[in-house]
Each structure stands twice: as C-alpha cells, then as structure tokens.
Amino acid sequence: MLLDVALLVALSLTLLTALSVVVLSLVWIERKFLGRIQMRMGPMHVGPFGLLQPVADAIKLMAKEDLLSSWVDRVIYWVAPLVVFVPVLMIWVTIPVARDLVIRNLDLGLFYIIAFSVLSIVGLVAAGWASSNKYAVLGGFRAAAQLVSYEIPLILAVLGVAMLAQSMNLVQVVNEQNVWVYALIQPLGLVIFFIAGLAELGRTPFDIHPAESEVVGGPFVEYSGAHWSVFFLAEYINTFAIAALTVLLYFGGWLFPGLPGDVPIISLAVFLAKTYLVILVIFWIRGTYPRLRIDQLMSLGWKVLVPLAFVNILMTGAYLFYGWPAWVLSLLSVAVLAATVWGLSKAMRTAPRPEVTVRIYNPTSEAGHAG
Amino acid sequence: MSLSLAVFYLLSAVCLAGAIGVVVSRNVVYAALLLLVTLMGVAGLYLLLLAEFLALVQVLIYGGAITIVILFVIMLTRVHEFRAMRDNPQWPLALVTALGVFALLAIALVNGAPDETVRRGVSFSRLGDSLFAQWAVPFEVASLVLLVALIGAIVIAREREEGEEE
Fold first, then answer.
1. pTM
2. CB B19 within 8 A of CB B38
3. Interface list for chain A against chain B, based on CB atoms closer than 8 Å
C-alpha cells in the first residue's frame, strides 16, 4: 500500500511537471505566433529566440506581491483558484498520449472528463463573488452563463463520437479510427466540438468573461501574483486538453498512416505534433477574429450549435441503425454544415441592425431619485 | 479496518461536516459551496459502492449544473436580505419529512438486507440496455416530466417579457 501511495505521488508530480513544461511552451508559441500574425517579432531578448521569456515571466509572477483587498471574502477568495485548477488537472488522469501512456484508462473516460471539467465553473463564479468587485461579479456571471450553455453542444458532440466508437474509453475511440478518422466521417461533430471547446476555454473570440474592454479581466480582476497565475495555468492546461481531445476524438490520436501505433516514442511524437497543430489553429483564431457580443454568443450556442448537435446525433443514429456506408454520413454531415454556413452568412448579411437604446446616465437629472 | 472502510468513514465525515455546515452557516454563499462538498462526498460514496456511472452523474448534474444555478440565484440577490430569512417557520414540516424518509430507508434496509458477499458493479452497457429496453416506459415518463418543466419555465419567462412590453 505504501508503494501504491509512492507511485501515486510520483505520477502526480510527473503529470504536474509535464503540464507545466507544456504551458511554458504554449506561452512562448502563442507570443511568437501572435507576433508573426501582427507583423512583430514577439519575444526575442531573453534566451535564443526569446525561448526563456516564459521562464522569466513565471519567476516574475512568483516574486510579485500578492495583493489582497480588504473587502474580499478571504476563504472563498483563496479556495476559488484551487476549485478551478484541481478539476483541470484531474481530467488528465484519463487522457492517453499514446496507446500505453495513460495514467488510468477508464472505461467511462469521456464521461469522466466532461463531468469533472464542469466543476471549474463553480470556481470562476466563486472567484468573481469573493472579489466583491462589480466587474469581477459580472465576469463570474458571464462565465457561468457561457460555460453552462456551451457545455451542452460539447457533450452532444462527444456523444456522437461515443456512438460511432461504441465506447467511452479514449484508447478504444482512437483504435476505432485506424481506418477512417472521425473528422472525415463526422465533420459536423468536429466543428461543433471545436467551437464549443473554444467557448469552454474562454479564449478569443469567446473571451466574454475576462473581456478586458468590458469587465476589465472579469473574475480575475482582484487576483495578482501566484494566485492569478493559478488561473493562468488552468487556462493554458485547458487549452492543451481541448486540443488533445480534438486530436483524440476526431484526428486519430497517435495513429498515422504508415507509422506503427504501438511504439510509445513514435506515438507520443505523432500525438504531440497533431495537438500542437490544433493549438496553432486556436492561436490563429485568436489573432484573427474579434470578440463576440454576449447576445451573439448566446444565440450562436442555443440557436445554432445545440440544434446542429441534435441533428448530428440523429444522423449518426440512423447511420448506425441502418448500417449505411461511412461516406453517406460524411456527405450528410458536410451538407448540413454547408447549409448552416450558407444560412448564417445570409442571415448576417440581411439582418436588420439591432435597435439599441442607449440610456446615458446623467447624475444631475436623477439626483432626486438617488438613495 | 480495511481500506474501503477507512475511505467510507472519511467520505461520510466529509458529507456530514458539509451538511452540518450548510445548515449552520450564516452566509448563504458558504452554504451553497458546502453543499457542493457534501454532494461530492456522496459521489465518492457511490464510487465506493462501484457505481461509477452514478458517481459521475452526481458530479456532472449536482456538482456542475445544480450548484452553479443555486450560486447564480443567490448571488443575484443581496446577501444581507438572507440574514432575515435564515430561520423560517417550516422546520417542523422539514423534521417530519426527514424522519419519515429515514424510517422508510431504515425499514427497507432492515427487511431487504443485500447479500454483502456479492460486490460488483454493473457495466455501463448493461445499464444502458436495461434503461432503454426493460425500463423504457418509466425512463420516457421521467423525460416527459423534465420536458414539461422545461416548457413551463419558458412559458413563465415569456409571459413576463410580453407583459413588460405592453
């Protein structure tokens, strides 16, 4: 039993270290890549190609004074970063990076990941409330509304994959893709999963809850130093997790035509190459698209993605029940996707501009009502 | 004492401590977060009973969705308004209900004691089979009830919206 505990501690430390290295690499790649997009050089002075910049940033964050406002609710304020971070770390227990490189290959792996990733939302809401800052509270509410809404299409998209693979075991899901990856069979599911995943991350164009120009950083506005960096770490580990899940569920994980799928080193290399490609796409979107308005965010989630996800499940069900060849589902999927894109672009071009009444607060005229 | 018994006591202690905290806490936001602790403890107990699926459902539905909705509602109201509402005259009713549920469970447990030598979980696929084949009608009835509740919520929200515009 002592050996078990030692193994557990060793595995946790390895996981934490590996993920921290991944986060450092992501920060560097993001800054360099965004620099390229904006025709800048990005970090270049600390270390060769600015490679040591994230390390310098990390040291700066740790050494920074950890400010604590006098009006915060201390207990919840300190606990909230942990409530966000622990589930983010826990889902890595069952994410395989190669066929045999997984801490515990759970049979209900997919369901486990979904169930635990939801818990982070509680931490964001609690962080916002405990900060007792109106921007933080607004940001916390925005986080709850956005993340709970986009959880639904995400789960429904994952359900489509579970139906195709007849399993919720991630290793099984990857093994089922040795002929055709699910990105080809179910492109509709991929698009829904990726958009909902981006929204779950709260990254541009879905960074509604930390939006600097609206709620000045949202739930994190009162946090600084090491406590803020816990949120930062959680966000980047989550980005990596969503990219890894996209690769595992839709791009065949560690499988690559012509390469053996059972050699851990090759598998790991293939998996990481695919995952970093997906991450580059995520950064590319961040560098290209403006932020959505909150009402656009909600209508995209509820009026477009949720119905599409149900259509995806119905089509997958029909495909499995009648035993159609796989290309039929691909064609149907692409057709629905094309129709949606066409309908949306038409609606966007012809929609009348929303009538917005702007009420300007004038303190002198309402002085009599104040109180 | 076996390991599973130790874990059982630990989880039960977490559940009970959380539950007492929910009732005693003077701050409703603390109460809601402590409720989350209790619900997670219950999920752990399910896991101990080899009901993996139920444990995950507990985390997803109660830990994720329901706690967030409760927090949302509490935070939209002002905390000091709850100070006056901490005590209310319904406690005898709650006591009777709690004792009734306890009696029912105790009777069921004493009369139908399960065979303790058999400890095995039900596989996820068997659970799905029995839910959608053997118990399809109750399952559909339950989903119908949820659908009615959903439509009811929308109807109530819409009526108010139209009333404001008039």
1. 0.86
2. yes
3. 1, 73, 75-76, 79, 107-108, 111-112, 114-116, 118-119, 121-122, 125-126, 129, 137, 140-141, 144, 148, 151, 168
